[in-house]
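Propose amino acids for all 272 sites.
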């Protein structure tokens, strides 16, 4: 008689955590939140952007990611401790006030600062979920959070937007982590890191452009810019929390079980 096959299953608590992570990752809604603040749709403003502005924003976005990577994570220490979400939100509020007051011309100054604050907050959340921040792979996983919460990289409705993005970045992250681990941040390692930065920037520039449009509303001013930056920070903190909860559960149970369970869970909150 054959022995029964044991099927690994998540505990109720782990399943609840994975469900919460999926609700964060699959329902970001940053444009909708900003539109609610402004009482006007973001997509209408996107159509009015002058030619060349989106290319300019993409370049500023990539430069901001590069600068943020240089300073945000390297000063973090390992060890479980509560993440300082509120402190990072307040810091983002002050930089957003400047962006709201001066609009697009201030983006090249404001965005690198905001991105550095956000990346440090993302790393803080990662550490709180058990990531070892002296690992290059963990550092690059923090960078990858900026690629999440935008349009799905896949048209296949059966594949979640979250895992589609991870699949899109997987090879670039693996190549960059290997090169950085062996060569450090040298010119020789630069091409693989630049490839990853370009992929992340292409997706990060989408919510950045929406943010620029929101802050360009004539009545937004410094106070509105501060509020929009707080929403922006909260958005990527949510993405980070969901991402690193999934990674923690993958370390405990293996990626196959976590992905299968994730895909089976509802993408929207259901009533009791």
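Proposal:
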């Amino acid at each position: 008689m054959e022995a029964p096959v044991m099927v690994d299953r998540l505990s109720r608590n782990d399943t609840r955590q994975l469900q919460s992570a999926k609700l964060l990752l699959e329902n970001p809604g940053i444009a909708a939140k900003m539109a609610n603040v402004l009482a006007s749709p973001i997509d209408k403003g996107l159509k009015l952007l002058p030619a060349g502005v989106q290319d300019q924003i993409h370049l500023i976005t990539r430069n901001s990611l590069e600068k943020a990577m240089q300073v945000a994570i390297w000063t973090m220490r390992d060890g479980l401790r509560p993440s300082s979400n509120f402190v990072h939100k307040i810091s983002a509020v002050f930089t957003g006030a400047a962006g709201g007051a001066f609009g697009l011309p201030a983006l090249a100054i404001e965005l690198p600062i905001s991105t550095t604050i956000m990346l440090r907050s993302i790393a803080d959340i990662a550490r709180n979920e058990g990531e070892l921040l002296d690992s290059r792979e963990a550092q690059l996983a923090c960078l990858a959070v900026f690629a999440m919460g935008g349009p799905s990289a896949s048209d296949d409705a059966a594949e979640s937007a979250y895992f589609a993005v991870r699949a899109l970045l997987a090879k670039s992250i693996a190549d960059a982590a290997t090169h950085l681990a062996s060569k450090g941040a040298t010119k020789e390692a630069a091409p693989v890191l630049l490839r990853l930065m370009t992929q992340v920037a292409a997706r990060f520039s989408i919510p950045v452009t929406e943010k620029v449009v929101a802050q360009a509303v004539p009545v937004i001013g410094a106070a509105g810019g501060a509020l929009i930056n707080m929403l922006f920070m909260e958005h990527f903190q949510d993405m980070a929390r969901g991402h690193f909860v999934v990674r923690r559960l993958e370390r405990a149970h293996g990626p196959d079980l976590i992905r299968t369970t994730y895909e089976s869970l509802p993408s929207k909150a259901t009533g009791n």
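The CA atoms of residues 59 and 95 lie 19 Å apart. DSSP finds eleven helices and no strands in the chain.
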